[in-house]
Amino acid sequence: MTPDSIDPRHHERMKALVAYTAASFATDHPSPFGAAVYDAQTGGLIAQAYDSVIAKCDPTNHGEVNAVRLATQKLARLSLRGCVLYSTCEPCPMCMSACIWAELETVVYGASTLEDADPYWPQPSDVTPQELAARMRVEPRCEVIAHVERELCRDLFQQCDDVRQERGLGLPPNR
User: Which are the catalytic amino acids?
Assistant: First the structure.
């Protein structure tokens, strides 16, 4: 899929997610990782969240997992069938697995994990969301759409790094 052939709503929603995620830079725990869940039929925003790993001292509190948790709670159901998840960065294996278990229809992401995020936030895995989706045992498989508004999402990492350096904030010791 070329950037021109991608549904224009994906671009609009990713731009809105970038703005939402950038708002985390004003908090005590700035993060470039944000995610949002939309209803694929109505186009309505169900939930959005950013990473709270450092704030909550919980390595599972990635933006995607937080957004999935909020969406399932709001809808009062375990399945997010008929929903689309947007992420400012390529989902890690944990997050993509959560998307698969939640039965999300589509995952759309901006920045690349190893090419864009790793220089700022070192990543412990190189398994791609496409690899995990290809291994799904149920149909329909989750569609993965890569690099929507990649430049905007990539810029979040530099901006967040600048904020962290200005305020003397570090990454967790293992990063």
Answer: 64
